[in-house]
Amino acid sequence: MKNFNFKSAANTKEATKLATGRATFLAGGMSLLPAIKLRLAGYSDLINIKKIKGLSGIKVSSKSLRIGSLTKHVEVATSKEVKKTISSLASLAEGIGDPQVRNRGTIGGSIANNDPAADYPSACLALNATIHTSKRKIPAEKFFKGMFETDLKKGELIEAVEFEVPVKSSYAKFSNPASRYAVVGVYVAKLKNEARVAITGAGSSVFRSKELESALNNNFSASAIDNVNISSKGLNSDIHASAEYRAHIIKVMARRAVSTC
Ligand SMILES: Cc1cc2nc3c(=O)[nH]c(=O)nc-3n(C[C@H](O)[C@H](O)[C@H](O)COP(=O)(O)OP(=O)(O)OC[C@H]3O[C@@H](n4cnc5c(N)ncnc54)[C@H](O)[C@@H]3O)c2cc1C
Q1: Alpha carbon 258 to chain centroid, angstroms
Q2: Which residue, judged by its Cα, is nearest atom 40 of ligand 1?
Q3: Nearest residue CA, atom 5 of ligand 1?
Q4: What angle separates helix 210-218 from helix 243-259, to the nearest 10 degrees?
Q5: In this predicted structure, what is the pLDDT of residue 2?
């Protein structure tokens, strides 16, 4: 359905009130509009949230980095605060799509969409993020439910994403040369209490690798990954890469991420 009503919300309360029935929020439109155009999705109303003040911007504290949902990828990529606090997050944003996508796409839109090959979901899981919505705070662990599926309820708006500041971290992506979406992306973070490894592009949704985490919790070094066995069972197999190839690339990207931490 390509016909829809276009409405603009001035604040979060108005946006959530308007988002009833077959309505949805419009942020950068980089994923939503192609889906509508290709008739993969149809809505009665698009609620423009871009005019809502306070949903954009970056705040740093000693323990966390909070990024407003309407903050564009280019803003994260070029932010001095992000580069200083979690530089891997700035590099991740710099590697998303192309300049057009980075100048329109938002962090909130990316995680709400939960594309299995999107980059930010891996940062959320690895950096123990909390998703702040109009209703509640959701730990990243509970937020990403499956392919293009999240824990968000109808009319629930993401307001910000809060990342734990790690001791060190790095993101390595083997990207599709056309779209730059991840064929496999591995986000490694050494947090205060544990090492975390989140993988995107390889499965139906982002996931943590217990095998890699256990190896890195014993010894946080690239060589610790050498003896880890990554099973191809359940991994994506498509025109870009077989499941076996993805399993191999996970190890390669994990080693690369750890050695650039
Ligand atoms: C050519 C191309 C290449 C790309 N390459 C990459 C890549 O390499 N890596 C990558 O990660 N991504 C990539 N993307 C996706 C890109 O990052 C999008 O910007 C992102 O997925 C969606 O953000 P958006 O702001 O455009 O959201 P929209 O398209 O406006 O919305 C997407 C979905 O999120 C919902 N939504 C938006 N904001 C909120 C909110 N605040 N609260 C609740 N729901 C909300 C919308 O209702 C909609 O369902 C690419 C896109 C394109 C077109």
Answers
A1: 19
A2: 158
A3: 97
A4: 30
A5: 75
Tell me how far apart the terminal alpha carbons of the chain are, to the nearest angstrom: 46
Report helix, strand or coil for 62. coil
Instruction: Kindly report the average pLDDT of the chain as a whole number.
Output: 96
45: part of which helix (H) or strand (E)?
Answer: strand 45-48
**What is the reported pLDDT for 1?**
59
Strands 158-164 and 130-133: antiparallel
- With the most atoms of ligand 1 within 8 angstroms of its CB, the residue from 18, 30, 92, 206 to mutate is 30
Query: Which DSSP symbol is given to 60?
Result: E
pLDDT at 193 over 90: yes
* Residue of 52, 110, 148, 150 best suited for mutating to test ligand 1, as the one with most atoms within 8 Å of CB: 110
pTM of the model: 0.97
The answer to whether 157 and 13 have CB atoms below 8 angstroms apart is: no
Q: What is the pLDDT of residues 118-167, one digit of tens each?
A: 999 999 999 999 999 999 999 999 999 999 999 999 999 999 999 999 99
